[in-house]
Amino acid sequence: MRNVLAAIDSDACAQPVLGTSIALGKLFGAEPVALHVRERGVPSPEELAREAGVGYREVTGEPIEQIVVAARTPATVAVVLGTRGMPQGPQPAGHTALEVITQVSKPLAVVPPHARPPEQFARLLLPLNGSPEASGALDEIVRLARERHVAILVLHVHSPTTVPAFADHEPHATEAWDREFLRRHVVAPQEEVTLLRHTGVPAIAVAAVAEETNADLVILAWSQNFGEGRARVVSETLAGSRIPVLLLPTLLGRQGHEPWAAAQ
After folding, report:
1. 163 Cβ partners below 8 Å, 6+ apart?
2. What is the pLDDT of residues 148-203, one digit of tens each?
3. Which of 154, 162, 191, 247, by CA, is between 20 and 30 Å from 99?
4. Do 107 and 143 reside in the same domain of the chain?
5. pTM, full prediction
6. Residue where a domain stops, chosen among 111, 135, 150
């Protein structure tokens, strides 16, 4: 059985994590399963999982190690974790989430503690910077969204120096640019995709557009590298997002890599 692994504790993030795993399971065609790594003195969240209608597993050991081991099993197609933010963000970082997202090369959703995920995702926000690696990593999620009739919102953020010179004056040229961008970077008919273009700071634009469009899920391709000067959009989006953020490692889009979510 294919599953979406929801790593939970008895804290404020347990219910949003469970809710996200249910919605993600519907998108991926997989069953949500809660995993709790038992620690001394910490109450079991089994009742929360039961109330949500989600299967429950409990193991002992070091939390990060046990979550990574469970996430790497062939049956697990995605992982859902709760977090309170990222370094230098408005809230303290979730150490477990930071460690797991760099070690598990599968789709992984990070859920803020006050998120209210729907039972089923209706609008996905896909920020794209125009790189082939990012575009390729998103191919499978686009395919799944189309099969499930989920709205696909693609966001491209220009810096002040990369805005097309004709953007404010030539509607036909702007439309041609939009069509070409979608043709190059999104594996879906253009009439099934909404392209949104903004100018400014990517992470700020992602948060603003997510709120404006009532998006249910932000999806970011990334290299799994938090080294100096790397993954700034990912870290800032995770710190400020009010909705779950699904991270897709760019290796998932590499030629020859098996699709991570086979059709059901």
Report:
1. 199
2. 999 999 999 988 767 666 555 567 778 888 999 999 999 999 999 999 998 888 88
3. 154
4. no
5. 0.90
6. 111
